[in-house]
Amino acid sequence: MPRSKFLLLPLVLLLLAFWPAAAQILTPTKLSSAVSKSAAKVGEEVELIVNARIDDKWHLYATNFDPDLGPTVFTFTFAKSPAYELVGKPQSVGTKKKFDEVFKGDVTYFERTGLIKQRIRVLQPGTLTIKAETEFQTCTDIDGRCIPGEESLSFGPIEVTGSAASPAPTRAGSSGASVTPAAPAATTTAVVAADTAAPVTASAAPAATPDSAANPTEASPARVASAAAPAVAASTAAAAATDASAGGLWSFALAAFVSGLLALITPCVFPLIPMTVSFFTSGSGSRQQGILKAVVYGLSIIFVYVVVGLLVTVLLGADGLNLISTHWLPNLIFFVVFVVFGLSFLGLFEITLPHGMVNKIDAQADKGGWGGVFFMALTLVVVSFSCTGPIVATILSLAAQGERLTPVVGMLGFSLAFALPFTLFAIFPAWLKGLPRSGGWLNTVKVVLGFVELMLALKFLSMADLAYHWNLLPRDIYLVLWIALSGLLGFYLLGRFKLSHDSDLTHLSVGRLLMAVLAFSFMTYLVPGLFGAPLPLLAGYLPPQSRNDFTLAAGESTTAVPAATAANALCEAPRYAEFLELPHGLPGYFDLEQARRCARTQNKPIFIDFTGHACVNCRKMEATVWKDPRVLKRLRDDFVVVALYVDDKAELPQNEQYVSTHDGKTKATLGKKNADIQLTGFNVNAQPYYVLLDPNATPDLAHTLAPPIAYEPDANAFVQFLDAGLARFRQQSALAGR
Predict the structure, then answer these.
(1) Which domains does the chain possess?
(2) Rounded percentage of the chain residues whose pLDDT exceeds 70
(3) What angle (nearest 5°) sits at the alpha carbon of residue 41, between those of residues 35 and 47?
(4) What is the DSSP letter of 532?
(5) What are the tens digits of pLDDT across the range 172-182?
(6) How far apart are CA 583 and CA 544, in angstroms?
(7) What does DSSP say about strands 113-122 and 84-93: parallel, antiparallel, or unpaired?
(8) φ, ψ of residue 204 in degrees (nearest 5)
(9) Neighbour count for residue 290 (Cβ, 10 Å)
């Protein structure tokens, strides 16, 4: 090999050694800016547009969900100016929505591409260029990493013509906040509010008030295409439309379709199938005409339900739907409605619509003709209301947690399944012979639905209870009620008791037996939750575990650290402990300097946990690996633990705010400070990230006691990581005479 190649080999090895550290700086989201029009008159509105390009397998959190939930909401920071004012809140177009099992709430996000808009009203003539600071978070479900991001954006220039005038009256719901295009972005944040005079953060989410409202009305991709500059909107509108119609919407439509099939086997609907079909098969006219009328009948049913969905969408809109899903009053109303329907299904009373209305609709159906076919369909919908009402209410309440189209999609899926048998049996009447006869089994179905309705009612009460901290329905009481209801359902199916409308049960069918097995199995699955089991299959329906009213027998071990022990293990009261805590009762800190002082006093190494409220895998590590008794014992006895939240919004005292040497920006919040420590010291910006450090050394990569690790679900490997760092610390301490 030539001498030159031998000389290059050490250089190559050196580069390879440093490559992993350099590769840790991740930028999965790239932002670009645009304006909807480059020229405007004084008093006109202009849309500021942010386009996001997101790496595959990553998702960017959007603007329209509760900022206190955990993940970082996409936020704009402005300063005031007489040149223009903000109108309304940021709008995220084409988002997806899901219930996050870790944070117990709904989050909205983008995949692949994102589109966010902020409307402004121009107030003075001249050339206008708007500066804004953005803050956001991108995460991946592949390995649970989350990357906090911040970027300065410039919008414009916009040529503003016309005479300067007093600002136009702000529409209801607009911010009224002024922003300075040339001034530096504010380092403190506040939610946009009417008549504000301070620098503000434009965010679509409420500001830590339980009753604050709601998501912005999301514009359709078509409207985006007409309002934005062609070069921008042409590419983003299609992506927004794709995202809006993918995944979640199809799943919701399928769930609504299955609900429609279940509605068919209720006592109000099932007996009507042969009666209705016989009308089309025995009436006068050709078979072709009968089939055509059957098809029109089915389409009329679909039409009636879709109109209901359209009315919900038009009357409430996106803001109204979000209000239904988050405000205490609609949730309490749904709770009462579901309890009433549940008790009705159990036979306590009968719910019917006014007879006068039913008779008038039925009279129109008797007139015959095509109009009569439609009114027959309407009669079916009205007559079956007592059974289908709660199912439809469930779909609409779930739709309230989705996008603007979800009520329509839900009603379309439900009505398609609901109308299909009537149409098919009219076309193929011989199939009617295969239907089971009406009987007591229909009332059994109704009773089962009654128990399910009562269980679902608790979810609505729980949503209001959690949002407003009433503490009426903690997890243990919630579970006790579910256990009781599922147990009663099991005994009912076994025939141990009867309700008012039940017929005598001469024998136990295989179907009832299997359903009873399911009910008792569900009850058995719930019981360990009373003693702290996480019950992951039901995480989306249960309140979070904050206390245990039930404990195991005395003498059994527990992984939690007693409060007194935790307090005694600390050298000083931890800062930020009023709103931050470590899992499993571990003692520790949330400020690195506090942890270093205590570690030097106790002569222990530091365990740094770079974490975040929005970090899914951080919670998984805490719930599984940290809970391992070997890991928990080492963290409690051998290390001083410090959790550094990189996305916490707590504002630092003025004397602790500083300008980062990394990006030259002011770090004014606890989260930004901790993220800066991670980035400048360890060249990493993803969480979770675990570092073992000598408290007497500089907190950087060169002074770690063992190679830092990220997400590591293997508890054995995590124990080896801790042991390696502890051994290295003891060796260094012995050499230093400590």
Answers:
(1) 29-245 (no CATH), 249-440 (no CATH), 563-736 (3.40.30.10)
(2) 66
(3) 25
(4) T
(5) 333 333 333 33
(6) 13
(7) antiparallel
(8) -80, -10
(9) 20
The residue type at 7: L
Q: How far apart are CA 113 and CA 236, in angstroms?
A: 8
Token pair 């078979």 in the structure block, residue: 287
Name residues whose C-beta falls within 8 Å of residue 64's C-beta, 6 or more positions apart in sequence.
91, 92, 95, 108, 204, 205, 215, 216, 218, 322
Instruction: Extract the tokens encoding 53.
Output: 């390009």
Range 568-580 average pLDDT: 83
β-pairing, 39-41 vs 146-161, is parallel
**Higher-confidence position of 214 and 107:** 107
Distance CA 635, CA 638 (A): 6
What are the pLDDT digits (tens) for 192-212? 333 333 344 454 443 333 333
Q: Report yes or no: 110 and 96 within 8 Å, Cβ to Cβ.
A: yes
- Give the relative orientation of helices 328-345 and 440-468 as an angle to the nearest 10 degrees: 160
Pull the structure tokens for residue 682: 């360890």
Element (H, E) at 236: helix 230-245
Beta-carbon neighbour count of residue 44 at 10 Å?
Answer: 16
Contact indicator for 210, 466 with CB cutoff of 8 Å? no
Please tell me whether the overall predicted TM-score, pTM, comes out greater than 0.90 for this model: no
pLDDT level of residue 642 (50, 70, 90 thresholds)? very high
Nearest to 494 by CA among 477, 472, 518, 470: 518
Q: Report how far residue 673's alpha carbon sits from residue 645's, in angstroms, rounded to the nearest whole number.
A: 9
Pairing between β-strand 200-202 and β-strand 146-161 as defined by DSSP bridges: unpaired
What string of H, E and C letters represents the secondary structure of 174-197? Answer: CCCCECCCCCCCCCCCCECCCCCC
Query: Is residue 561 a contact partner of residue 636, using CB atoms and an 8 Å limit?
Result: yes
